[in-house]
Amino acid sequence: MKMLVCGKGGCGKSTVAALLARAMHRHGRQVLLVDADESNIGLYRMLGVDMPQSLLESLGGKKGFRERTAPGSGLGGPPVLFPQGLRVADLPGDCLADAGGVKIMSVGKIHHFGEGCACPMGRLFRMLFGALKLEPQALVIVDAAAGVEHFGRGLDGQCDHIINVVDPSYESIMMAQRVTGLACEAGLSVAVILNRTTPDLEKEISGALDGAAIIGSLPDSEAVFRRNLRGEPLAIDFPEIDTISAALLNI
Predict the structure, then answer these.
(1) Dihedral, CA of residue 164, residue 170, residue 175 and residue 177, to nearest 10
(2) DSSP calls for 118-131
(3) What fold characterizes domain 2-249?
């Protein structure tokens, strides 16, 4: 199963993705956590590991990727970077970090001024996920870039389910409604996780998202805030995250 975690910037996507990855691993799943946000670099610290070489870098960066995927590079057919039926075990080892059994991989990052857009990362994501075949107990959780650009680039079509993280803000609620509409166009189901809530706020947000499939909420936590501020591992778990992960596994 491939799940994409999305939402507005600052809603806590990376925090939720990291907590979910650990919880799913506790449920006995083989978890690959994919960093598909070309800007954010904090996901790895949340799980207490250093960021590995990105998949794009392992292919020679944008220049190497363009050369490998240029017309005519496929020996008479379209260029193929990854064979169909690609397994997680087949991914380059120097692109994977291990956080207590959770494998983490980055698609690519923007490193330099003027280097161009993130389109190669999007294309690489589609090629990889179109080829990836998961074993029965395997699970991929994708930490997506903020907003809805990934829908415009068709990245979500490579996933099975959308997880929409919503925090207590008008912008987040409006973004959740847009995500639901775009996911519907893509034929994908959406599960909503409320983040940084209180019981009163949870009721208000739930009312604003009338009809949304809200599968759980995470409380506002000063401990999580301070750990994220300092770049420290999220050595904190909420009972709610296990309930949420169990619900996702039953989708």
Answers:
(1) 80
(2) SHHHHHHHHHHHHH
(3) Rossmann fold (3.40.50)
Tell me: the pLDDT tens digits for 175-226?
A: 999 998 888 888 888 999 999 999 999 999 999 998 889 999 999 989 898 9
Minimal CA–CA distance to 108: which of 14, 8, 42, 41?
41
**Distance from C-alpha of 145 to C-alpha of 86, rounded to nearest angstrom:** 24
How many whole angstroms separate alpha carbon 198 and alpha carbon 29? 30
- The length of the chain in residues reads 251
What residue has token string 């415009």? 152
Q: Residue 186's Cα: distance from chain center in Å?
A: 17
pLDDT single digits (tens) 60-90: 988 888 888 887 655 544 567 888 888 888 8
Residue 238's pLDDT band, with cuts at 50, 70 and 90, is confident
The contacts of residue 108 (CB under 8 Å, 6+ apart) are 38, 54, 55, 56, 57, 118, 120, 121, 124
> If you search the block for the tokens 């959308």, which residue do you land on?
162
Q: What 3-state class would DSSP assign to 211?
A: coil
pTM of the complete model: 0.90
Work out whether strand 189-197 and strand 161-166 pair parallel, antiparallel, or are unpaired. parallel
Would you kindly state where each structural domain of the chain is located, as residue ranges? Answer: 2-249
**Alpha-carbon gap, residue 103 to 119, rounded angstroms:** 25
d(CA 73, CA 68): 6
